[in-house]
Amino acid sequence: MPFRQIPDTDATYALIAFNKDGVERTDDRPDGRNGIMTARILEDVTANPPTNIFLFSHGWKGDMPAAIDQYNRWIKAMIDRAPDIARMKSANPAFKPFFIGLHWPSLPWGDDELAPAGFATGEDAVPLGRLKENYLERLGDTPEIRQALDVIFKEARENAAATELSPEVITAYERLNDALGLGGGAGVAAPPDADREPFDPEASFQRAQVESAAAFGGFDWGGVLSPLRQLSFWTMKKRARTVGQSGMHAFVAALQRALPAVRIHLMGHSFGCIVVSSILQSNGQTLPRPVDSAVLVQGALSLWAYCGDIPVAKGRPGFYNSIVSRRAVRGPLVTTRSKFDTAVGTFYPLAAGLGRQVDFDVSEEKLPKYGGVGAFGIRGLPTRVVQDALQPATHDYNFRAGMIYNLEASAFIKKGGGASGAHSDIDGAEVAHAIWQAALV
Hints:
13 helices, 9 strands, globular
């Protein structure tokens, strides 16, 4: 994938692409030669070192054009912040940024298939045949997955108004869960692709019927395909962990070894927050040194992921707790949360095996077992966490190294439609300013 120039600017960024199996694409060289883009980036930054590297990972997007559009908007919001860039130059007159975007296939479902018409009738409906092909592309077209989907979609076609799943469909869902390597659900302290209740297709189906009947934001989560959406959600979380802890962890480590003085800043959005967390903690492997800041924007990972002792699972730490305990982030770790983010606030607990949760302003004692960082922030670390609000782009946060800042962002992250709500409304000056302020520490 070539270096990208942001429209109407002179700014560029490097774009790395991984496939659905978590492997970097080998056709990814801008000079037309086969090879991987990470190697080209290492060549370039070694020959012409920057002072600061900003690495972004999207989350809720499936194809390359959507990822490019996001990075164009996010990075442009960064470079449009002249006062913040001036402060970076004041701190270091040699300031020279280098921006990197990561693409990986990550769309769990399309908003069109959650419309009230669903896959029923009418000109806006999604044909079932096309929908099945979409899921084969998302999940992987193996014989085991195709056989399970054949059974599930046959039932969706012939019995769309089912009030319970047939034994054959339940078995097909159980086999699909196994084929995707998702296991039975290991609870809140598990890795991000397993921190859910044990998968029960019939219970998932019934729960979705109730939620859809409760005017689920104008979208239909129910029907025979509702457990499929749940499995697709967790497949994308698993993919995010794979991408982060394998190729991307190795790449960031290589950057640090090649450039001992460079400051590295990570930003993840949605499932991309799992990518970032997995870069920082990779199967027990650590980076050569801490990164300089990390920002998790509307994170689709557990609010307990960084906790040392989970209140609802006493004696067990969150999967990413070692990021905190060994100070894998030298500077601040910043999160955003918004009540207008339907993707995290509503779909996350439903996919975990629970009903939706609508109270975002709960006390520490009443926080849910399953909930996303994008709805509640990072929790369970009272001496390290500061609860604050996302502020206008002129605000001085005075972030401190080693601290975690949960920024309530509903005043700014509030625009959006479709099933995801304001989940992707993160290209405003306020978010860009917070990223710059974290990088300044």
